[in-house]
Design goal:
Distance between the termini: 127 Å
Structural class: alpha+beta
Order of helices and strands: HEEEEEEHH
Number of strands: 6
Largest sheet: 4 strands, antiparallel
Shape: rod-shaped
Number of domains: 1
Strand order of the largest sheet: 3-4-5-6
């Protein structure tokens, strides 16, 4: 009787092509992940810088509201130039603000603002203009109404306390 002998070759493992293909897929995936992380980091830094710039601009506008018009003898004077004033809360940044009256309306002013700073040894600046009306800022008007004219918050609270005692 004749028996057939089959040769069965059992090979365990991966071929070199399969290993190279798996490494290429892994390399492509990790490269994409690193690119997304880099992009996300740059976007976060850009957002942080924009937030800081917005805070600086708001600080400059607030300073201009408080110091542009001088309040003397119960009246607002002419606007004064604010030259090379430090931006509150930001080191190494200064601003200059100059007001120009509108010839058609003497209460209206165009305020030209320039902010200057140095970054990486390069002097930089940014300029913009805004319109201002010659008036006391809201906070100052409120302070004057409550503190100077009515005797302050203590007087108001005392009046409220005495009206409760009479009942």
């Amino acid at each position: 009787m004749k028996t057939l002998h089959l040769r069965v070759s059992v090979r365990a493992g991966f071929t070199i092509i399969e290993v190279l293909l798996a490494m290429a897929i892994l390399l492509l995936g990790s490269t994409a992940i690193i690119a997304f992380l880099t992009f996300g980091s740059a976007t976060a830094r850009h957002a942080q810088l924009r937030t800081q710039a917005t805070a600086a601009v708001e600080a400059v506008v607030s300073e201009i509201d408080r110091h542009l018009f001088v309040y003397e003898n119960g009246e607002l004077g002419e606007p004064r130039d604010l030259v090379d004033r430090p931006v509150p809360g930001v080191d190494g940044v200064v601003y200059t603000a100059r007001a120009v009256v509108n010839p058609d309306n003497e209460r209206e002013y165009r305020v030209d603002i320039e902010v200057r700073w140095e970054s990486a040894g390069v002097k930089r600046s940014k300029s913009w203009s805004m319109l201002k009306i010659k008036e006391l800022p809201f906070g100052e008007r409120l302070r004057r109404e409550f503190i100077e004219q009515s005797g302050g918050f203590k007087q108001i609270s005392q009046d409220a306390g005495s009206s409760g005692d009479s009942e």
